[in-house]
Specification:
Layout (H helix, E strand, L loop, with lengths): L1 H23 L3 H6 L2 H33 L5 H10 L3 H10 L3 H11 L5 H19 L3 H32 L6 H55 L3
Helix pairs in contact: 3-8, 3-9, 4-5, 4-9, 5-6, 6-7, 6-9, 7-9, 8-9
Subcellular location: Cell membrane; Membrane
Protein name: MotA/TolQ/ExbB proton channel family protein
InterPro entries: ExbB/TolQ_transport, MotA_ExbB_proton_chnl
Length: 233
């Protein structure tokens, strides 16, 4: 009997440690599933917003990256063709370069022979169209960055309402297990909303920076083209 008691006392602390470790370990999936229907709906909505935001980011990132690539000798070739009077070759060269800069220059080349102000206006209008194309759907990222945390806070409010409702129905006897659904909903939705909002915010600002670089590139090459037209032949 004494040996059995010693064995029980040796194994009991280990069993307790295992039980405690199991109780402290809680996966994200369990947090979501134990957050109640309201929390699951909020999490699902935030997950959809995250997928939309990531799709827009990578689609726009690749498009802007392609738009920023231009042959370093492009403007030199345009200069040589225009100064030599070979306008058609300059236009064909611009058509073969599928970039916003090349499309602006092509618009300017098509207006050669008209007053310089008309050429400048045509390039500016074409530039606005190119900027619009570059920024397509980027505003959705800004909307997600602002809406996601608010949706998460909505889940927090729903969770607190559930918790208060459980307290009211408990007759003054507060049981933490009874409040767990509401508290899980409050915490998980807040964290999820902030994570989606931060990702969308960073993605939005990165795309804006990349877009501005392309815009500056278009402005620099447009000015160089207009200066070329002012050069004496």
């Amino acid at each position: 009997m004494s040996l059995l008691l010693l064995q029980d006392t040796d194994t009991t602390p280990e069993n307790l440690e295992e039980i405690v470790s199991e109780e402290k370990t809680l996966s994200i999936f369990n947090l979501i599933m134990e957050g109640g229907l309201g929390g699951q709906i909020i999490i699902a909505l935030l997950f959809v917003l995250l997928l939309i935001g990531l799709y827009i980011y990578f689609e726009r990132f690749l498009a802007i990256k392609a738009a920023s690539k231009i042959d370093k000798n492009y403007m030199n070739q345009i200069r040589d063709n225009i100064l030599s009077g070979n306008i058609e070759a300059a236009k064909i060269l611009s058509q073969n370069n599928k970039t916003p800069v090349a499309r602006l220059i092509e618009k300017g080349i098509s207006r050669i022979g008209k007053p310089l102000d008309d050429i400048n206006t045509a390039i500016e209008n074409a530039g606005k169209l190119e900027i619009y194309k570059l920024e397509r759907n980027v505003s959705v990222l800004a909307t997600i960055a602002g809406a996601a945390p608010m949706i998460g806070f909505l889940g927090t409010v729903i969770g607190m309402i559930i918790a208060i409702h459980e307290i009211a129905n408990s007759g003054g006897q507060i049981d933490i297990k009874m409040l767990s659904d509401g508290l899980y909903t409050a915490m998980t939705t807040t964290v999820a909303g902030l994570i989606v909002g931060i990702i969308a915010y960073i993605s939005y600002n990165h795309l804006i920076v990349r877009t501005n670089k392309v815009v500056y590139q278009m402005e620099a090459n447009s000015l160089e083209f207009l200066d070329l037209l002012n050069e004496p032949v």
